[in-house]
Amino acid sequence: MDYRDTPEEAAFRATLRGWLTENIPAGWDKVEDPEAAARLRRSWHRTLYQAGYVGMSWPVEYGGRGLSATYDAILNEEAGNLNAPPLPSVGYLGRAIFTYGSEEQKQQFLPSLLSGEVQWCQGFSEPEAGSDLASLRTTAKLDGDHYVVNGQKMWTSGGQYADWCMLLARTDPEVPKHKGISCFLVSMSEPGVTVRPIVIASGEAETCEVFWDEVRVPVAQRLGEPGEGWRIAMTTVAYERGPADIGFIATYRRTLAKVERMAAERGLLDRPETRKQLARAYVRGEVLRLNCVEQLAARVSGQQPGPEGSVAKLLWADAEQSLQHLAMDILGADELTGVESGWLSSYFTSRPVSVYGGSAQIQKNIIARMLGLPR
Ligand SMILES: Cc1cc2nc3c(=O)[nH]c(=O)nc-3n(C[C@H](O)[C@H](O)[C@H](O)COP(=O)(O)OP(=O)(O)OC[C@H]3O[C@@H](n4cnc5c(N)ncnc54)[C@H](O)[C@@H]3O)c2cc1C
């Protein structure tokens, strides 16, 4: 396969690059106040949407442009190259809604998801159900034309800013655990929803505990059939783990260039260990890039994402964490004494990459099954 741009893709890339240069909010990565950062993310989402850059590969009838996934990848890549704010991640949630939703649900939820008018969070994990998600204990009991939800979710990213939640809850405790789960689309402003932000090691509260106490959810807001929650969750995470996003590579390369520059400034480029670590970091990035491109090619040719997304997730976590670790080695005390800043926070932000979206060990289990290795 030829991975170079077609003439149409090259023209799109050039227009996009011009648009990004004019529209990336100046100083966005210096905003420290979490509320201001959340407002900036929302407004960036709307700006991209108004320019037609959100959901380009979605079907036209749901507000997309019906383009191939290559265009989303070009956007990711150019946004990464030009240090744009993170792009809105509407793809996997949208995929679940347009695969399993009723026509009314698609009309109700997809346009506002795409435009950024409504922000979503993902309420899957619980205190005792992360890797073993199917053990979740939050219940949804049918009561007339409503379900009544009780339980606790954990690590709900962006829960404090979200308007709606895609929630998994047990609707049938009598059947095997994977079969008794259903999926719901629930407004976070329903009475009985309590959100408590969790501050992680980087000092940011990007994720939350969410308590669900007698929350009433109309039956019409169940996504898919009763008991179909597990299948929906697996579709969602397959797209989430997908060819990660190719923009990560561009951001990774920029960070690697900065780390190399810091090593040069400290006279470390002659040190064999540093040279070896920098070379390894480069190779890790290239291996991940080729893996992403291969998966993108499979996606463009119509294949659904499958367990191979676990390979990208594993490579991504390894590349990101190793690079941040190398930056710490090179900086020594300079970050603590204020010669450089921001690297410690990036280091801590890289730590949970091997946990969210499924831990590294779980990805290895999935890859082992894919390879047919003995259990
Ligand atoms: C920053 C952050 C954001 C997150 N955002 C969200 C979100 O928005 N929505 C959401 O629903 N969840 C979210 N999560 C939750 C995430 O998906 C879980 O943390 C993850 O699946 C691991 O579950 P756990 O934390 O319960 O750890 P556990 O499942 O308790 O695992 C603990 C350790 O045991 C290992 N382990 C467990 N089982 C096995 C096994 N079978 N084989 C080998 N090793 C195993 C794990 O790899 C891990 O090292 C987020 C997590 C973090 C840290």
UniProtKB/TrEMBL annotation:
Domain Acyl-CoA dehydrogenase/oxidase N-terminal: 6-117
Domain Acyl-CoA oxidase/dehydrogenase middle: from-to ranges: 121-215
Keyword field: FAD, Flavoprotein, Oxidoreductase
The keyword Lyase belongs to this UniProt entry's keyword annotation: no
GO molecular function: flavin adenine dinucleotide binding; oxidoreductase activity, acting on the CH-CH group of donors
Cofactor(s) needed: FAD
Gene Ontology CC entries for this record: plasma membrane
A Pfam short name: Acyl-CoA_dh_1
Domain Acyl-CoA dehydrogenase/oxidase C-terminal intervals: 227-371
InterPro entries named among the record's database cross-references: Acyl-CoA_Oxase/DH_mid-dom, Acyl-CoA_Oxase/DH_mid-dom_sf, AcylCo_DH-like_C, AcylCo_DH/oxidase_C, AcylCoA_DH/ox_N, AcylCoA_DH/ox_N_sf, AcylCoA_DH/oxidase_NM_dom_sf, Mycobact_Acyl-CoA_DH
Family: Belongs to the acyl-CoA dehydrogenase family.
Protein name (database record): Alkylation response protein AidB-like acyl-CoA dehydrogenase
Native species: Streptosporangium saharense
